[in-house]
């Protein structure tokens, strides 16, 4: 299995692959990972041009190429192999696979990437993958089947394509929050990512102007266990980065909990500040520290 890249994964910013200007702006910004999009953001008649633009941009980029990823088209369509053949010689940092149905899709992508890595002098198995889950109804039933899947380093989910797959006229309630089925998709992604041992990444907020709503949503899903969020506009990146960065107070509290258990080896529970700390508290403290300290 591919080793997880030594990258922060808080913010994942999409940039359309047919716009050199937008790709440059995204790459020069503060997003932890930039995703050059060959799927939804590019019309069929412009995909060939976009492949060339992404290849050339990656080839001349002088910064950290490991943070520049590419979203290819779905495996059940006609474009995926052309996408991969065009961009892999330029050594993208990683690949996003949309509309995955089952583990077999990840395994098929692994075979394609292995062949292209060998052909282009890239270390075999070194190109990581983030998978877009829940964009099809079928995928919802396979969310827990990705433990040990090759190359998989993160999982995210989609609400717009799922609505399309279901024939739903909307995926939200009158208050703007997701309907039950889409909240379930979010939960399945989180559970699936936890089972696979990879970070769960929250889906986009399409209204990029409402940064206060974005902040509240990012903070909410972080409390639930999500570790990052997709972005569709550079204005969203700073909000997402801040929301998914543990505060100084949280870090200090986590270190205090770890120190208490280190001072009481073998203890299952420890009284602290009028309450009880147990091993799950220690585990959560260690996970939080791992986010900031590695």
Automatic annotation (TrEMBL):
Please list the residues that bind substrate: 71, 135
Q: Which UniProt keyword terms apply here? A: Lyase, Magnesium, Metal-binding
Query: Which cofactors, if any, are listed as required?
Result: Mg(2+)
The HpcH/HpaI aldolase/citrate lyase domain covers 10-234
GO MF terms listed in the record are: lyase activity; magnesium ion binding
- Which Gene3D superfamilies does UniProt cross-reference here? Phosphoenolpyruvate-binding domains (3.20.20.60)
**Amino-acid positions noted as binding Mg(2+) in the UniProt annotation, renumbered to this chain:** 135, 161
So what family is this one in? Belongs to the HpcH/HpaI aldolase family.
This protein's name: Citrate lyase subunit beta / citryl-CoA lyase
């Amino acid at each position: 299995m591919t080793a997880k890249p030594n990258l922060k994964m808080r913010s994942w910013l999409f940039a359309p692959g047919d716009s050199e200007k937008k790709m440059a702006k995204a790459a020069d910004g503060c997003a932890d990972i930039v995703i050059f999009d060959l799927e939804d953001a590019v019309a069929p008649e412009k995909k060939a041009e976009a492949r060339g633009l992404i290849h050339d941009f990656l080839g001349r980029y002088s910064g950290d190429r490991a943070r520049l990823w590419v979203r290819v088209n779905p495996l059940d369509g006609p474009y995926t192999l052309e996408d991969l053949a065009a961009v892999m010689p330029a050594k993208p940092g990683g690949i996003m696979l949309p509309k995955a149905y089952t583990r077999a899709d990840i395994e098929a992508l692994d075979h394609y990437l292995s062949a292209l890595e060998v052909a282009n002098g890239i270390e075999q198995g070194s190109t990581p993958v983030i998978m877009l889950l829940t964009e099809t109804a079928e995928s919802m039933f396979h969310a827990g089947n990705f433990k040990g899947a090759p190359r998989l380093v993160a999982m995210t989910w989609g609400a717009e394509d799922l609505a399309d797959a279901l024939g739903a006229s909307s995926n939200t309630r009158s208050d703007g929050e997701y309907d039950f089925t889409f909240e379930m998709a979010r939960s399945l992604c989180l559970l699936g990512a936890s089972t696979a041992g990879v970070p769960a990444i929250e889906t986009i907020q399409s209204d990029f102007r409402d940064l206060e709503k974005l902040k509240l949503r990012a903070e909410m899903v972080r409390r639930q266990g999500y570790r990052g969020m997709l972005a569709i506009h550079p204005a969203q990146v700073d909000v997402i980065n801040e929301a998914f960065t543990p505060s100084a107070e949280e870090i200090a509290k986590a270190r205090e909990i770890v120190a208490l258990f280190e001072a009481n080896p073998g203890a299952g529970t420890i009284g602290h500040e009028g309450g009880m700390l147990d091993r799950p508290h220690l585990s959560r403290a260690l996970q939080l520290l791992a986010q900031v300290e590695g």
